[in-house]
Amino acid sequence: MSAQDFKTKHSLRRHHSECKQLQQQKIARLHGIEDTSKHYYNKHHALDCGNPQCPVCGNPRRTHKHTLTYQEQKFYQYVEDKDDNTPTSGNATDQP
Ligand SMILES: [Zn+2]
């Protein structure tokens, strides 16, 4: 990789992170959160309260110990449907 390629990748990476920061700043403004620098949202989502035990924005594996995540629920539902030998492709055209 040449030096120009590294510069292009670096500038693109900086551009994407700046876009994400502006997006989070816009979300914060829409929800009436006090205006802060866009750099505050570099690694912090606007609606994340920061409490790791929060039932809304915390990790469900840690906050609800014995419940499955949404992806696991979908997977087990898919496996159960597959075991019933009822083909479900998920397309709207299959339904009458
Ligand atoms: Zn929260």
How are the secondary structure elements laid out?
Elements: H1 3-30, H2 60-63, H3 70-83
The structure holds zinc ion (ZN).
Residues 49, 51, 54, 56-57 line the site of zinc ion (ZN).
Distinct ligands, ions and cofactors found in the model: zinc ion
SSE pattern, N- to C-terminal: HHH
SS elements, strand count: 0
Q: Treating each run of at least 4 consecutive H or I residues as one helix, how many helices?
A: 3
Helix content, binned percent:
40-55%
Q: Please identify the structural class as seen in this structure.
A: mainly alpha
Report on the structure:
The protein has 2 domains: 1-47; 48-88, no CATH class. The protein is mainly α and 96 residues long. It has helices at 3-30, 60-63, 70-83. Bound molecules: zinc ion. Residues 49, 51, 54, 56-57 line the site of zinc ion (ZN).
Gist of the model:
The protein is mainly alpha-helical and 96 residues long. The protein is 48% helix and 0% strand. The longest helix is centred in the N-terminal third of the chain and has 28 residues, at 3-30.
